[in-house]
Design brief:
The chain folds into two domains: 158 residues, no CATH class; 57 residues. Helix content is 75%, strand content 0%. The protein contains 13 helices and no strands.
Length: 241
C-alpha cells in the first residue's frame, strides 16, 4: 500500500475529476433535502440518511415509505435497490486490494457516479493513486451531504411546489449513461440493458401489473449472480489480468 502523504497535486487532481459530480450532487442533494423537509424530515434526517445510506436512488425512493411510517419497508427497498452496489464492489476488489483500511471506506462510499469515475482506473500522471481514489470518493460524498443539508434548510424557509424534483435522479443516470457510452469502447452491456427495458415495457406496458414470477426473478437473480461472482472471483481476476 502506498503510504505517501497526500499532496496538493493529489487534491487538485481529485477535485478536478469530482467537480462535475460534485456540482450535480449538490443540486440533486438539495432536491432530496427539500423533499425530506416537505415530508416532515429536517436537515438532520437528510444528513443521517446520506451517511447511513448514501444512495440517491434509495434515498429518494425511501422518502414515501418513511413518510408513511414504514421504516421496515424502506429498509427492504433500500436493500433491493442497492444490490447493484455489491457488483460494483466485487469488480473493484482487485484494485482496492492494497488499500489497507482505506478500502472499507472506498467500498462503503462507492456509488454509481464514483464508480463511473474510478472504474476506468486512469488516475492523472504523477499523483498518488491511493490518495486520489479516496479523495474522489470523499469529495463526491461530501457534496451530496452538503446539498442534502442545504436543501433541508431551503425547504424549511421556502414555500413552493416540489412536484417533479424526484425526476432529477433519472436525469442524472441518463447523463452518466451517455458519458459512459462515449468513454467506453464496448457497448454490449448498455445495449442489453436498454433492450431489456424496452422489451419489458412492450410486454407489460405502463399500467399493467408485473407478474409475480417476474418480481420473484428480480429478487432472486441479482443475488444468485452475486453469489456466483463471489465463488468464481479468483478465476475472473485471473482472466482480468
Amino acid at each position: 500500500m502506498n503510504k505517501a502523504k497526500v499532496t496538493k497535486k493529489d487534491i487538485a487532481a481529485a477535485f478536478k475529476t469530482s467537480m462535475p459530480i460534485m456540482v450535480t450532487f449538490i443540486i440533486l442533494g438539495m432536491g432530496f433535502g427539500i423533499l425530506m423537509q416537505k415530508h416532515g424530515y429536517g436537515p438532520v434526517w437528510s444528513l443521517i440518511s446520506g451517511i447511513l445510506i448514501f444512495s440517491g436512488t434509495v434515498q429518494f425512493v425511501s422518502i414515501s415509505f418513511m413518510a408513511g411510517g414504514s421504516f421496515i419497508m424502506a429498509a427492504i427497498t433500500a436493500l433491493m435497490v442497492s444490490a447493484r452496489h455489491s457488483f460494483f464492489s466485487i469488480s473493484m476488489i482487485s484494485r482496492y486490494r492494497k488499500e489497507g483500511k482505506k478500502k472499507w471506506y472506498l467500498f462503503y462510499a462507492l456509488c454509481d457516479e464514483t464508480y463511473a469515475m474510478l472504474s476506468r482506473d486512469d488516475s492523472p500522471e504523477g499523483v498518488n493513486k491511493s490518495a486520489y481514489r479516496v479523495l474522489v470518493t470523499l469529495f463526491d460524498q461530501i457534496s451530496w451531504l452538503l446539498g442534502s443539508v442545504l436543501g433541508g434548510v431551503a425547504g424549511n424557509l421556502l414555500d413552493f411546489d416540489s412536484t417533479g424534483i424526484d425526476f432529477s435522479m433519472t436525469a442524472l443516470f441518463t447523463t452518466v449513461f451517455i458519458q459512459q457510452w462515449i468513454d467506453s469502447k464496448c457497448h454490449i452491456p448498455a445495449v442489453l440493458g436498454l433492450s431489456a427495458t424496452l422489451i419489458s415495457r412492450l410486454i407489460f406496458g405502463r399500467k399493467e401489473k408485473v407478474p409475480e414470477f417476474i418480481l420473484y426473478l428480480g429478487k432472486v437473480v441479482p443475488y444468485t449472480a452475486m453469489g456466483l461472482l463471489i465463488v468464481f472471483r479468483k478465476i475472473l481476476l485471473k482472466l482480468e489480468k
